């Protein structure tokens, strides 16, 4: 899918978006030892340049989705912490629904001890611990770079205490952003990030407090996956005014090094993400979509258009992509383009027609039983 | 990887590297070298053209394989062949990802992102250069030898490994025509820092290197620090960390433990090469 080889492949100068900063370098020999920069010459062609090149033959579908008061160009956006302005030039961003920042805290934070990440079966675990520049640093150095992507910016808001969330929203003031996403669920904060996300009362209180400071702009809540009842927390967030719910964050876990017998991560525990968690988060998205009348944004293990469609078909309105971007910086754009292609293949012009069970001719995996029974997510039920 | 006592890490100087790109790089060669390494040659002209000494690439493990290794593998750019538009990496088969890479046939394609990171800063005034690498760490240094030899710099290189079959880079150094190659191994008993130090003092005390660059061993880094002191040379080291993005946005590769207000340097974006300095000493260049 990545090799859009059919397109005529213009040289570097053709793509306005990727030109900036892409130092070409010379083709004739390695740079001399001295600290001289390579001469700026047009970059010869590569798969990235072809991926960015306009392709007049490509048929685009109407992939727009409505999330509460926001109308987004597509249902695909990054997951917090798995994206950054550093991807400019590697990932065409023009058709992302939004960009989401790494979680911002009120105070400047350094993050967790190294070793911070490790691969696990079909996934990974991280205990980055959310290093944060604090709100002033964020407004000065980080937010403008997100705006430069040209996409609606969703600011992820964190807190180690319930009050800290409101402080962040307050400090953000009337800075430009499209929505706030409340991260009540990062499993690897020092003091009970998990507890906040598991407590419906606390989630409701934080949601209300943040809403009061968001200047009328939408507030989303990103749910923690490992809680007694995800629907109860979802309902609490909804009642407190959340306009959309992201389902879900990474799963608390740990990995032991067989050599040393000790936990691999400097922080002992971390969050598990990637394809391994997709069935888990898919179920949670399905449960939440039935429990609350607000849009659900599926998150967990999305790396292909099929993954995205799976979430949309169990009731999500959009998806976030995290881990997949590490191995394929262009993953989100590939998903958008494949959704286009699937629409074209199915002879439909709009996303909802594709999402409808059976809407996609090529797709044999359409569930025969529409997930319609009322949600009950007690652990003792439905997992036999 | 820690720094020897009394020394600290600082960013390298020199120009900021250009922005990285990615490619679906055709595998032109993927063959065993020695008893535990593979040499992989990848057709990636844009990466080849802009790669600077000591930079690395992220090689994604093919998604078709059953392991579904989700994280790309950081690999030093070992050689650049600009006329062919090809880069070489040399890798050891360690776990599932490198195992899967070793199975990729010639003609297959891999997603490669790069060139990444801040590489070695070769000072224009340097006339004599010492490169000290152990094991696969030699790979990070080879592009320095490429540039230094092309610029007429006198290069001395140490390659160290456990066994002769595990030595990496000796043939490349010879092909590049460096001035002096010192091969040491544990099995032959000449790879301990004491012996290597004596060999290097013998070789270079009269006309010392102005820059020492190293990768792959803490003990050799400590030796290099002592030699740099002795010769009033500067020292740079290339470090490793587990990585996810390789670009600086995931914050997974911080250098050292920190819960303090400010985060320590990121190996992928601020490194992987760092200047090693005597604590408290200010020097103009890495
Ligand atoms: C800047 C840089 C340059 C490197 N250059 C080379 C090179 O030229 N040749 C070479 O053989 N190796 C090199 N390495 C180390 C190489 O990345 C690891 O050996 C490799 O990732 C191991 O993958 P695996 O599938 O064999 O192991 P697995 O055990 O399956 O790996 C699991 C996870 O841990 C990570 N990991 C394991 N060991 C290391 C390590 N030592 N460093 C970083 N990540 C690790 C993997 O990337 C993966 O995410 C380099 C590392 C860095 C940071
Ligand atoms: C390295 C890393 C950093 C993350 N940082 C954050 C964060 O700052 N805030 C947050 O809400 N989620 C964070 N997450 C969780 C992701 O946003 C996402 O919910 C999770 O990874 C599941 O999606 P995935 O399987 O597509 O990766 C992080 C995940 C990873 C892997
Ligand atoms: S690997 Fe992501 S910040 Fe360094």
Task: Reconstruct the topology from this structure.
The complex is a heterodimer of chains A (384) and B (286).
Chain A: H1 16-19, H2 47-52, E1 65-67, E2 70-72, E3 76-78, E4 99-100, E5 117-120, E6 123-126, H3 134-147, E7 153-157, H4 162-172, E8 179-183, H5 193-198, H6 200-212, E9 219-222, H7 230-239, E10 244-247, E11 251-254, E12 269-273, H8 278-291, E13 296-299, H9 305-313, E14 318-321, H10 324-327, H11 331-346, H12 351-355
Chain B: E1 7-11, E2 21-33, E3 37-43, H1 45-50, E4 56-59, E5 73-76, E6 79-81, E7 86-92, H2 96-102, E8 109-116, E9 128-134, H3 139-150, E10 154-161, H4 170-176, E11 180-185, H5 193-204, E12 211-215, H6 218-231, E13 234-238, E14 273-278
Helix pairs in contact in B: 5-6
The structure holds flavin-adenine dinucleotide, flavin mononucleotide and FE2/S2 (inorganic) cluster.
Flavin mononucleotide (FMN) sits between chains A (79-82, 102-103, 126, 128, 130, 156, 183, 186, 222, 249-250, 271, 273-274, 277, 299-302, 321-324) and B (244, 250, 252).
Binding site for FMN (chain A): 80, 102-103, 183, 222, 274, 300-301, 322-323
Protein name (chain A): Dihydroorotate dehydrogenase
Pathway (chain A): Pyrimidine metabolism; UMP biosynthesis via de novo pathway
Question: Would you mind describing this structure in some detail?
Answer:
Chain A has about 375 residues and is of the alpha/beta class. Chain A has one domain: Aldolase class I (TIM Barrel). Helix content of chain A is about 30%, strand content about 15%. Chain A has 12 helices and 14 strands. In chain A, the strands form 3 sheets. An 8-stranded parallel sheet of chain A has the order 3-14-13-10-9-8-7-4. A 4-stranded antiparallel sheet of chain A has the order 5-6-12-11, with no helix packed on it. In chain A, strands 1-2 form a two-stranded antiparallel sheet. The radius of gyration of chain A is 21 Å and the shape is globular. Chain A starts with 15 loop residues before the first helix and ends in a 29-residue tail after the last helix. Residues about 1-45, about 365-375 and about 380-384 of chain A have low confidence and may be disordered. Chain B has helices spanning about 45-50, 95-100, 140-150, 170-175, 195-205, 220-230, and strands at about 5-10, 20-35, 35-45, 55-60, 75, 80, 85-90, 110-115, 130-135, 155-160, 180-185, 210-215, 235-240, 275-280. In chain B, the strands form 2 sheets. Chain B has a 7-stranded mixed sheet with strand order 1-14-13-12-9-10-11, with helices on both faces. Chain B has a 7-stranded antiparallel sheet with strand order 5-4-8-2-3-7-6. With about 290 residues, chain B is an alpha/beta fold. Chain B has 6 helices and 14 strands. Chain B folds into 2 domains: about 5-15 and about 120-280, Rossmann fold; about 20-115, Elongation Factor Tu (Ef-tu), domain 3, CATH 2.40.30. The model of chain B is unreliable at about 255-260 and about 280-285 (pLDDT under 50). The chains are: A alpha/beta (about 375), B alpha/beta (about 290). The interface between A and B is large, with 70 and 73 residues. The structure holds flavin-adenine dinucleotide (FAD), flavin mononucleotide (FMN) and FE2/S2 (inorganic) cluster. Flavin mononucleotide sits at the interface of chains A and B. Chain B: Its cofactor is FAD; [2Fe-2S] cluster. Chain B: GO terms for molecular function: 2 iron, 2 sulfur cluster binding; flavin adenine dinucleotide binding; metal ion binding; oxidoreductase activity. Chain B: InterPro entries: Cyt_c3_hydrogenase_gsu (IPR012165), Dihydroorotate_DH_ele_sf (IPR037117), Dihydroorotate_DH_Fe-S-bd (IPR019480), FAD-bd_FR_type (IPR017927), FNR_nucleotide-bd (IPR039261), PyrK_electron_transfer (IPR050353), Riboflavin_synthase-like_b-brl (IPR017938). Chain B: Belongs to the PyrK family. Chain B: Keywords: 2Fe-2S, Electron transport, FAD, Flavoprotein, Iron, Iron-sulfur, Metal-binding, Transport. Chain A: It catalyses: (S)-dihydroorotate + A = orotate + AH2.
């Amino acid at each position: 899918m990545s090799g859009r080889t059919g397109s005529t492949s213009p040289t570097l100068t053709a793509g306005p978006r990727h030109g900036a900063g892409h130092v070409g370098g010379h083709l004739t020999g390695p740079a001399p030892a001295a600290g001289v920069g390579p001469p700026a010459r047009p970059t010869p062609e590569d798969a990235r340049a072809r991926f960015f090149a306009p392709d007049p033959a490509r048929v685009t579908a109407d992939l727009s989705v409505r999330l509460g008061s926001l109308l987004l160009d597509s249902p695909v956006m990054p997951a917090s912490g798995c994206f950054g302005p550093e991807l400019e030039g590697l990932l065409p961003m023009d058709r992302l629904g939004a960009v989401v920042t790494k979680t911002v805290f009120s105070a400047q934070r350094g993050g967790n001890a190294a070793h911070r990440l490790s691969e696990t079966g079909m996934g990974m675990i991280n205990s980055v611990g959310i290093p944060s520049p604090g709100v002033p640093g964020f407004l000065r150095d980080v937010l403008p770079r997100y705006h430069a992507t040209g996409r609606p910016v969703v600011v992820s808001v964190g807190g180690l205490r319930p009050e800290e969330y409101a402080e962040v929203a307050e400090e953000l003031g009337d800075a430009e952003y499209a929505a706030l996403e409340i991260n009540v669920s990062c499993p690897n904060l020092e003091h009970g990030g998990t507890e906040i996300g598991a407590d419906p009362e606390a989630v409701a209180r934080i949601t209300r407090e943040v809403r009061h400071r968001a200047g009328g702009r939408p507030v989303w809540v990103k749910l923690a996956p490992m809680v007694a009842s995800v629907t109860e927390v979802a309902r609490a967030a909804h009642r407190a005014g959340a306009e959309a719910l992201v389902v879900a964050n990474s799963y608390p876990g740990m990995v032991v090094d067989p050599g040393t017998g000790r936990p691999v991560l400097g922080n002992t525990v971390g969050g598990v993400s990637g394809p391994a968690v997709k069935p888990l988060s898919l179920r949670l998205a399905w449960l939440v979509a039935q429990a609350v009348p607000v849009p659900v944004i599926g998150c967990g293990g999305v790396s292909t258009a099929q993954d995205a469609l799976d979430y949309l078909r169990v009731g999500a309105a959009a998806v976030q992509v995290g881990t997949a971007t590490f191995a394929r910086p262009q993953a989100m754009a590939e998903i958008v383009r494949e959704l286009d292609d699937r629409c074209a293949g199915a002879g439909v012009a709009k996303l909802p027609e594709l999402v409808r069970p059976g809407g996609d001719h090529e797709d044999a995996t359409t569930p025969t039983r529409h997930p319609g029974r009322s949600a009950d997510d007690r652990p003792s039920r439905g997992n036999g | 990887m820690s720094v020897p006592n009394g020394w600290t890490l600082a960013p390298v100087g020199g120009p900021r590297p250009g922005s990285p790109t990615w490619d679906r790089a055709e595998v032109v060669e993927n063959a065993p070298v020695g008893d535990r390494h593979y040499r992989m040659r990848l057709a990636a002209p844009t990466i080849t053209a802009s790669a600077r000494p000591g930079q690395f690439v992220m090689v994604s493990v093919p998604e078709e394989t059953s392991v579904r290794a989700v994280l790309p593998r950081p690999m030093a750019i070992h050689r650049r062949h600009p006329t062919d538009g090809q880069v070489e990496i040399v890798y050891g088969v360690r776990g599932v990802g490198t195992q899967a890479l070793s199975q990729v046939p010639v003609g297959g394609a891999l997603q490669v992102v790069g060139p990444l990171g801040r590489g070695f800063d070769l000072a224009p005034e340097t006339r004599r250069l010492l490169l000290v690498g152990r094991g696969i760490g030699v790979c990070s240094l080879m592009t320095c030898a490429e540039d230094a030899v092309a610029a007429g710099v006198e290069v001395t290189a140490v390659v160290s490994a456990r066994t002769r079959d595990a030595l990496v880079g000796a043939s490349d150094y010879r092909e590049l025509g460096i001035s002096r190659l010192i091969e040491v191994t544990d099995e032959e008993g000449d790879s301990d820092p004491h012996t290597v130090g004596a060999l290097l003092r013998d070789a270079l005390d009269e006309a010392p290197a102005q820059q020492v660059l190293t990768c792959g061993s803490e003990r050799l880094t400590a030796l290099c620090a002592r030699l740099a002191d002795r010769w009033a040379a500067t020292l740079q080291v290339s470090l490793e960390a587990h990585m996810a993005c390789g670009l600086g946005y995931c914050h997974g590769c911080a250098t050292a433990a920190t819960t303090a207000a400010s985060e320590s340097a990121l190996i992928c974006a601020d490194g992987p090469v760092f200047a090693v300095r005597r604590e408290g000493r200010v020097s103009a260049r890495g």
